[in-house]
Write a structure and sequence with these properties.
It is built from 17 helices and eight strands. It is of the alpha/beta class and 426 residues long. The strands form two sheets. Strands 2-1-3-4-5-6 form a six-stranded mixed β-sheet. Strands 7-8 form a two-stranded antiparallel ribbon. Helix 3 links the parallel strand 1 (63-67) and strand 2 (86-87). Helix 2 (19-52) packs parallel to helix 13 and helix 8 runs antiparallel to helix 13 (331-353).
């Protein structure tokens, strides 16, 4: 037992003294959560400030309450309780959403609905500047809660209704508009997160493979051989990128093939048969339900999205080569440098996932990362904002050219053989 402890102690000391293990395995996970925590704290602060603007028991300043029945006492009392700006018709929805960010329409006669024992039908229309912004979702849910609380306060002392109706007095329909188009924020958010995750995971794989290709050359002492080949620097870089990108493309194809097989295997399990009235068998096809939810996706998202993913892999490969040229003395150095590069590259994606409003200068700096522009391009495509999508596609191509030129300038002589390896004294 004592010998085993001695071996374990020796192994621990040997690994902890290794700068690559210390930086890449021990410190990097801690820093990753620090970065995510800081980003989330900024998002939470923005949400808190947004909720404070709603006020206590009143609708937001930039809202209007539309009563279809101008003589309905229950509707008028709720409007007075909420201190809401009131209108009695909605002739032009587009103009109303330009003038007000939130338009609440109370349909029919609330008094008649409650007396009949049915919830009051209400539509909340919200003009969003960014469907992914968490604060927008909080405002929408706060308005809904305010309306329900106001109706409950007016109904309770005046009407003898069931407990269920008192707790759920409203039948609410929420509509979110972005640039004069109705969007499904849940679908947009889900798709954006899924594609953002795909961009990051596949891009990270290409980044690591690109950096490791340089680390392997230096560790195997074959970098010098590359310099003896009758190739120009840009040809050497192009060859490296083509070879590594081919591996990354195989990873993409493997992912797509595996995902299609997953759908094929899961689809039969999503068919559920239940016993209906009079012994009839009712089949619920959950896969059909999911497919119906995805029908709102623009047809250009899939082919254009695959093109963007391919460009992302090439950009990530080039970035990996550049990181490897600068910092990877060997394979472990490549893994360590890409671990810390990941901490930097994940920041733009997290800020977008939380819908944070960023300064213009910071957004321009994010364009100098391999994942931000492709992610924004796909996001704009989902929102059917084709001009913005093409603009970010152009930024993606510009980044490709920039990193290709930088790699070509660095990949020469001693820089290829030695680079700027991480040197930390033990």
């Amino acid at each position: 037992m004592r010998k085993a402890v001695a071996v374990a102690t020796r192994e621990f000391k040997s690994l902890i003294r290794d700068r690559y293990v210390l930086l890449g395995v021990v410190i990097a996970p801690f820093l990753a959560f620090v970065v995510m925590g800081l980003i989330f704290s900024f998002a939470a602060r923005e949400v808190s400030e947004t909720v404070k603007t709603i006020g206590v028991g009143t609708l937001p300043e930039s809202s209007i309450l539309v009563l279809e029945d101008p003589s309905d006492e229950l509707g008028l009392e709720v409007a007075r309780l909420l201190k809401a700006r009131v209108a009695y018709n909605l002739d032009n929805l587009e103009k109303a959403l330009r003038d007000y960010r939130i338009v609440v329409v109370v349909h029919g006669s609330p008094t008649h609905s409650i007396a009949s024992g049915v919830p009051v039908k209400v539509t909340i229309m919200f003009r969003s500047e960014n469907p992914l912004r968490i604060s927008d979702s909080i405002v929408l849910q706060s308005v809904r809660s305010l309306l329900e609380t106001a109706f409950q306060a007016v109904i309770a002392p005046r009407y003898n209704v069931s407990l269920n109706l008192l707790l759920n007095p409203l039948d609410v329909e929420e509509k979110v508009y972005f640039e004069n188009r109705e969007v499904n924020p849940t679908l947009v958010y889900g798709l954006t997160l899924a594609l953002g995750f795909l961009v990051f995971i596949l891009g990270l794989t290409a980044l690591q493979v690109g950096a490791m290709s340089i680390g392997v050359e230096r560790e195997a002492r074959t970098a010098e051989i590359l310099l003896t080949l009758p190739l120009r620097r840009h040809e050497l870089v192009a060859g490296k990128v083509a070879g590594v990108s081919a591996i990354s493309m195989l990873a993409l194809l493997s992912f797509i093939a595996g995902f299609l097989f997953y759908l094929y295997a899961v689809a039969p399990l999503l068919r559920v048969e239940i016993e209906g009235p009079e012994g009839q068998v009712v089949t619920i096809d959950l896969f059909k339900v999911v497919r119906g939810a995805l029908e709102g996706i623009p047809g250009t998202v899939i082919p254009f999205g695959l093109l963007v993913l391919a460009l992302t892999l090439v950009n990530a490969t080039l970035t990996g080569l550049l990181v490897g040229l600068l910092f990877a003395g060997d394979v472990r150095g490549a893994l360590t440098s890409t671990s810390y590069m990941t901490l930097v590259l994940v920041v733009p994606l997290f800020t977008e996932a939380y819908g944070l409003e960023l300064p213009t200068l910071l957004k321009l700096l994010f364009l100098l990362t391999p994942f931000y522009s492709p992610f924004k391009s796909i996001q704009a495509l989902i929102l059917e904002d084709y001009t913005v999508s093409l603009a970010y596609m152009a930024a993606t191509l510009a980044y490709l050219v920039l990193v290709l030129v930088a790699s070509s300038l660095i990949m020469s002589g001693e820089r290829l053989v030695y680079g700027f390896t991480l040197r930390i004294r033990r």
